[in-house]
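anyone seen this seq b4? input:
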Amino acid sequence: MARTARRYRCGDCGYESGRWLGFCPQCSTGGLELVDGRTSLPPSATRLGDAEVPGRLQCGIDEFDRVLGGGLVPGSVVLVGGEPGVGKSTLLLQAAAGFEDAGSPTLVVSAEESVEQVALRAGRIGIGPPAPRVVASTDLDDVVAAARSAGIAVLVVDSVQTIGAPDVPGTAGSVVQVREVAGRLVEFAKTTGTAVVLVGHVTKDGSLAGPKTLEHLVDVVVSLDGDPDRGMRFLRALKNRFGSVDEVGVFEMGESGLRAVPDPSAALVAAHDPEVAGTVLFPTLDGRRSVLTEVQALVVASGAPQPRRSAKGFPPARLHQVLAVLARHGGIDLSGHDVYASVVGGLRVAEPAIDLPLALALASSLVDRPVGHVAAWGEVGLTGELREVARAERRRREAERLGARSIVAPADDLRRLGDALAAVGIRS
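predicted toks r here
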């Protein structure tokens, strides 16, 4: 039996709502009146074994497809977030060209640039025919109408915070507008089978701007980050209904756009000099991939009452904790020195395995003694003990593959911070 979806409308301004309200929230006049609703048939149940599983749409950029779990699922909605200037628009324009070239018609909606500006970017990064179609609009109704008439398989919207629904109060980017725009684009994706990719802005603390509902509405949330001043970019899945969230894609920004980096470890440690004090190799885990990077430290005498502490690429609290443990259990007091520490390449490390290489780099810089081709990992406890971390064997293989001649990690004969300092020749 058919069911009726009730709609209520304000007689003064025409505002509509799916439920009755005692007043109009748009013009603050009298209550809403019931109008004729649309009718629809109730959905029929389908056995999972009888459901047709769609194939993935791939753009040919291996790092991008792998993070998504093997490509875009038709009818899915993907949200891509990242800081301004990190390369979101460039990456998605390259992906759109890849989808078009693979036989999946693609439409790029630019709400922040004109068609001519998008074409200028496409020419700069070498996108040629067959190029995806582009429309410049900030009106949601125009966007959906253009997408329906184009007969596309992939829709890229840049960005969801700059698209507005004309029949919804508030300016584009407001909580109400973002929720409504995302909801309608999700409905469009599910009803037409079109894969929709949304670009999302981020706030000062790095989280996605807009209501949290935005992340719940979409199927996949990925983040593109890295140091805007460096070439490396890292694409991570934060939510994925169709694949793993343990994948990371690595790219390098150049004049011709973003280039996939199949071996990020080699790129990150290419300039490593083992004869310089204050540098230690560190095989970190980013998802399921082990990436060999470099932890650098610089320690200089300071006459200031409060010496400077700078941590880049990892939480500053870890630096303060390692400094305290070094002073208490390592016999290395840095209270009268400025300390600068960073992870090379713009990689962000949150795992405690960085404690040991950080401690060794700090001690090496203080005594001005290089540690050589040493790779280290391990958590340092407050009492000076070394604790094992996950996937040690995978870290070891990656370090040895890139030429590390010595491994310093928690083991039966390496249980204290002092043992690790002695293993690299800093303390007897």
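Residues 3-40 form one domain. The radius of gyration is 27 Å. kinda curious what u guys think
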